[in-house]
Amino acid sequence: MTAEYELRRPGxxxxxxxxxxxxxxxxxSGLAPERVEDLVLAANxxxxxxxxxxxxHGRIAVREHDGDLVVEITDxxxxxxxxxxxxxxxxxxxxxxxxxxxxxVARNGAGSSLRLRMAKVREPAGPRPVATGSGAxxxxxxxxxxx
Length: 147
Hints:
- 38% of the residues are buried.
- By secondary structure, this protein is an alpha+beta fold.
- It is built from 4 helices and 6 strands; from the N terminus they run βααββααβββ.
- It has a single domain, classed as Heat Shock Protein 90 (2-Layer Sandwich), CATH 3.30.565.
- A 6-stranded antiparallel β-sheet has the order 1-2-3-5-4-6.
- Helix 1 packs antiparallel against helix 2 (33-53).
- A hairpin with a 2-residue loop joins strand 4 (102-108) and strand 5.
């Protein structure tokens, strides 16, 4: 099952709808309640980032992939870059990085895509890299830190 929603500003993307869409999909997939709230917050921050700092419009898709939940936010302006993931300046992407199991950025002819992955079962705690040069999604990868 995949759910999609188009983000647009001005005219206002309905971020409440984005949160409801992600929450419904996450709950339906069996994600633990505390993980649902983390994913909803991360998706909201990522969508807000695209609307405020990207091209002002994009698309969000939520799907299951290999037993994980994946939220992909496409920035039609293509302004999101791999180096934004490494920035720890209080931005929404810092929050996203620290809530999700994996975050990656890819750029293509359609713009930039920010991919958030959250395992249905919490991954074991331990040190994780904050960013690497190239990930399976074709861009930079940041993994959440766990305590």
